[in-house]
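Summary of Year 1 activities. Much of the first year was spent building the evaluation harness for sequence design. The harness presents a backbone, in tokenized form, and records the residue chosen at every position. We chose the following record to illustrate the format because it has been used consistently in internal testing since the harness was completed.
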């Protein structure tokens, strides 16, 4: 069935999938006849636009190649009129094998609606949600897959460095891999972490330095690092994501230690730390902190994330929250030194 349902906030990966489908089914010479891109609005015209898309999808292609109709953010799942659902029920089973209907959403569509249930039964569904920044293994797999697509050979330590340096920024990942691919043409061996470090700015590492400064309660250093990151146009949401990832790991380590667990492999698995040998050093990091403090810091970081997504001034809200979090982490020292 040539029906596709793509959704997710990782717009770069979603658009790459659309481009791949575009290249697969369309003949460039007949593009103007066989390709329709319809951005569905939320106005009264939305139903008409979707009906138009369904009708176009029912039309056999002209000339060579096949037909592709792309509906962007259709209102299915939000405004399911009986006419639109009936038209969808009629269209899906009758689509010509040479016509392809693609529906994309910026966020997950309402799976309880009749129209979306119908689509999920008959469409090829793909989700393009950013990988959570603390899912280290998934980030590493993402780097391996992208490197394979671009045609770059990377050593294991280079893969890990890229995952740490870039996080879940897919667009930047492919940009850096394309740059590395040009460099790799000069040698046949896989690129090492040393070579990657020279070519890829490790902004995530600077965010990890910020996490360390907060953990130690070094307010002045933390504010300087924030200013440096913003000066190189590091996205504030990416900074926050790295901090969430690091403090989440520290919290898991502390909780496991307070529960009496001492097996580094067990702790590593619970905290999703790929290398159990890192656990010793992470234990030292949280030695002077208590789990309620780490919970409060993580809560504060999630509040920061919400504030940034609501459009508040990134510099002001970052500086204010960083000062607050540093003060939270200074509490043990104050308690031990009245």
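For this record, the design step produced the sequence shown next.
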């Amino acid at each position: 069935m040539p029906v596709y349902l793509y959704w997710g906030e990782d717009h770069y990966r979603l658009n790459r999938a659309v481009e791949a489908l575009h290249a697969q089914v369309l003949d460039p010479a007949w593009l103007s006849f066989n390709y329709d891109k319809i951005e569905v609005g939320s106005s009264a015209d939305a139903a008409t636009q979707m009906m138009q898309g369904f009708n176009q999808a029912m039309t056999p292609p002209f000339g060579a190649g096949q037909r592709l109709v792309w509906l962007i953010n259709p209102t299915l799942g939000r405004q399911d009129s009986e006419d639109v659902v009936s038209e969808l029920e009629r269209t899906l089973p009758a689509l010509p094998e040479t016509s392809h209907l693609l529906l994309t959403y910026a966020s997950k569509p309402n799976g309880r609606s009749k129209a979306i249930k119908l689509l999920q039964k008959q469409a090829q569904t793909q989700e393009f949600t950013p990988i959570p920044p603390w899912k280290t293994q998934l980030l590493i797999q993402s780097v391996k897959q992208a490197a394979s697509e671009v045609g770059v050979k990377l050593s294991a330590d280079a893969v890990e460095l890229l995952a740490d340096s870039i996080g879940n920024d897919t667009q930047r990942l492919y940009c850096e891999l394309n740059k590395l691919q040009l460099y790799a043409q000069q040698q046949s061996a896989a690129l090492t972490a040393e070579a990657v470090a020279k070519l890829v700015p490790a902004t995530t590492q600077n965010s990890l330095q910020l996490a360390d400064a907060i953990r130690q309660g070094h307010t002045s250093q933390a504010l300087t690092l924030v200013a440096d990151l913003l000066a190189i146009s590091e996205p504030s949401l990416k900074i926050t994501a790295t901090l969430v990832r690091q403090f989440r790991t520290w919290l898991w380590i502390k909780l496991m230690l307070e529960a009496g667990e001492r097996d580094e492999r067990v702790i590593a698995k619970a905290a999703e730390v790929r290398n159990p040998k890192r656990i010793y050093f992470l234990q030292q990091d949280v030695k002077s902190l208590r789990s309620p403090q780490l919970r409060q810091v993580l809560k504060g970081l999630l509040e920061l994330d919400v504030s940034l997504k609501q459009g508040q001034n990134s510099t002001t809200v970052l500086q204010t929250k960083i000062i607050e979090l540093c003060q939270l982490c200074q509490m043990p020292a104050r308690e031990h030194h009245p």
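The chain has a mean pLDDT of 87. Quantitative recovery figures across the full test set are reported in Table 2.
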